[in-house]
Amino acid sequence: MDEVTAQFITAHEAALRLTVALLLGALIGIERGWAAREKKAGERIAGIRTHALVGLLGGLAALLSVAVSEWVFPLLLLAVAAIALVAQRASMPHSRDYSITGLIGLLLTFCLGAVAVAMDPVLAAACAVVTALILDNKREIHGLLNKLQAHELDAGLKLLLISVVMLPLLPDRGMGPGDALNPHQIWWMVVLIASTSFIGYFAMRLGGAEKGILFTSLFAGLSSSTALTLHFARLSRRNPELSPLLAAGILIACGTMFPRILFYCLLIRPELLPRLAPPVGVMGGLLYASALVIWRGQRQDAKVDRPALRQNPLELRMALMFGALLAAIMLLGRWLEEGLGDTGIYLLAASSGVADVDAITLSLTRMSQDTIGMSTAVLGIIIAATVNNAIKSGMAAGLGTAKLGRRVALPMAVSLLAGLALAWGLTP
Length: 428
Fold this sequence. Notes:
Domain MgtC/SapB/SrpB/YhiD N-terminal: 18-142
InterPro entries: DUF4010, MgtC_SapB_SrpB_YhiD_N
Order of helices and strands: HHHHHHHHHHHHHHHH
Distance between the termini: 71 Å
Domain DUF4010: 191-400
Pfam family, one: DUF4010
Keywords: Membrane, Transmembrane, Transmembrane helix
């Protein structure tokens, strides 16, 4: 009785999986049939019925490969490919369509039917949905390719090079003086900062100019708030009436640095968040609030050009320089911590913050795992952010109008003092 029940359950499950295979084929067939809906009956190579049957055939091929012979699946796959090629060849003189996308979709349907029966129906369903989406968005995908510039494609490939190819090859162990350098972790942080800059570049590329000061400033904080500060400061000289709005934009860009700091911390050292989040949240919140007050006080609807974007969103040479900077900061941090204790870390943070916050943030976050205390890391990060924003405040005052300088300097000073006081108060 138990064997009969087991056979019934197995047959029932097989029937359900074959049904899934049929439905997944129908899903892809609906998209193919809709794309060719204007063709006459018989002119379509494969529509909803053909794809549904091919999906079912793939499922049956998977079952027969187990029950009859392992050659059933490849032979049926070759048969489907041959039939599709013959049909494609016969239709070419009339349609002048040389695309093989439909043929690939048909073969995918066969394979997904097999996956639904022999492996995992959920995986097959996910792949079928993605396949249908890709087939349905031909115009949009080709449109994106037409908009993509050569140096941007080059940047994307380089990002894949440093992340997918190089990262797995690096040793994941401590090396150098005091085992302070871990090549895998250092390069992972290089990939992290490069990816953030890459995303910020394309955010600015796609909508910065059209959305005006607010949109530009928000996404410039992901790429380079320093570049935006310089651009807006110079722009205020040419358009003094825009100074309040430009000041709000600078505050937004500088405030975006703080969520970025928390994001790095979340990925590298989540245990640091309870101590780092209060001062960083206060500093960023005060800058955003000040920007909102200035923004709401204006009645103008102004748009400005986005800052000039880098010619390449990701240069490999810059990535290598950033990796070298990270390694140097970690070595200096180890030596200064041994020689001067926490004071050395704070001096390192202040000097590093003059040029960049990301490198010292990533370094101190990493060092808090085994070299320095969490309170020291938090205060060091806040010091670096304070110095960095103070430098940008000086840029706004020195290169922009007096009105711009005042509206940037006062909120920046309040934010920095509040963050330092909170971080110092949380230090044991």
